[in-house]
Amino acid sequence: MTAPAPSSCPTTPATSTASATPAAAPASAATSPRGGAAARFGPVALVISAGISVQFGAALAVTVMPRVGAAGVVTLRLAAAAIVLLLLCRPKLRGYSRSDWRTVIAFGIAMAGMNGLFYQAVDRIPLGPAVTLEVLGPLALSVIVSRRLVNLLWAGLALAGVVLLAGHGGGGFGGLDLLGAGFALGAGAMWAAYIVFSARTGRRFPQADGLALAMAVAAVISLPLGAFEAGSDLLRPSTLALGVGVAVLSSVLPYTLELLALRKLPAPTFAILMSLEPAIAATAGFLVLHQAMSALDALAIALVIAASMGAVRSQVGKRGE
Q1: Phi and psi at residue 90, to the nearest 5°
Q2: Confidence band for 8, pLDDT divided at 50, 70 and 90
Q3: C-alpha R_g of the chain
Q4: Burial 114-128 (b: 16+ CB within 10 A, else e)
Q5: In this structure, are residues 188 and 101 in contact, taking their beta carbons and an 8 Å threshold?
Q6: How many percent of the chain have pLDDT more than 70?
Q7: Residue range 193-202, pLDDT digits in tens
Q8: C-alpha to C-alpha distance for 181 and 186, rounded to whole angstroms
């Protein structure tokens, strides 16, 4: 393992020496109910915070699209995020195996694909239905890799909410642009890959070094497409400022939180928690883009929240056995 990155780079609880229990401390302190609850629900809070950040960042990105297009927004988001993370973490480039590099490159490809396809989708269909279709990827992952029957139950409940939320915007899936819906489904598949490779990267690289390197890979992949679509418009100061804001909200903050959470949460639980994304997206669409929510939307949100809470309780119960 390489030397730790500077303290400004986010530190994972798994590798932080500050999280170690002092030798003189009584053993009961490490296993107290309060400490146990924090250890169990801390990663869940990270995932939920990441979801809020990424969806409000996506809503902001929709307002930038008229300036630079979907590919331009992706380039701004990933390039700005890569610069910020590389400066903060200053990851080491030596001391890693070929397998480590293959993992971080695959993570970067998944990240570029997820972002590129998603923004092509929201350029054609509303934010709520786009996220609803996208979240099918993590839901499918949770069903495929789950080893507990109860997780299949919560995934099914979340899927029911996702299908119900498909009516967001009044037209449902029947009124959606088919190409936009296809892009959203493709983004969901890449999202599932992102979950897998984010977890692997977090185990192979210290702190957020792997995330910074993967973000750089994603930025390099997206740069030619963004430059082709937007050209010199990418360099306007006002556009760059908005791009930095989108990058922080949609990439730097949420991806760091998710990477840290995945070191503590199993992939099935993490994937089911991702079913909260349509609810968060609908809220962001209402507050930022003025997209109204119906009673049917509210019911769908209740279903996905119930499924997510059930997944968390199931995981806590498993650890307590």
Answers
A1: 45, 60
A2: very low
A3: 20
A4: bbbbbbbbbbbbbbb
A5: no
A6: 74
A7: 988 898 899 8
A8: 9
Q: Where are the alpha helices (DSSP H) in the chain?
A: 27-30, 33-89, 98-122, 127-134, 136-145, 149-165, 178-204, 209-230, 237-247, 253-262, 267-273, 277-288, 295-320
Classify residue 240 as exposed, middle or buried by CB count within 10 Å of its CB (0-12, 13-18, 19+).
middle
- Report DSSP state, residue 265: S
Rounded to 5 degrees, what are φ and ψ at 320? -80, -10
The CA distance from 109 to 190, in Å, is 9
Rounded distance between C-alpha atoms, residue 215 and residue 40, angstroms: 28
Instruction: Give the total residue count for the chain.
Output: 321
Residue 280 to residue 30: CA distance in whole angstroms: 34
CA angle 226, 249, 245 (to 5 degrees): 60
CB 218 within 8 A of CB 164: no
CA angle 175, 288, 111 (to 5 degrees): 75
Q: How far apart are the first and last CA of the chain?
A: 33
Cα–Cα dist 9/167, whole Å: 41
Angle at 125 between CA 120 and CA 126, to 5 degrees: 115
Q: Summarize pLDDT for 265-306 with one digit per residue, the tens.
A: 876 677 677 767 777 887 887 788 776 667 776 787 778 777
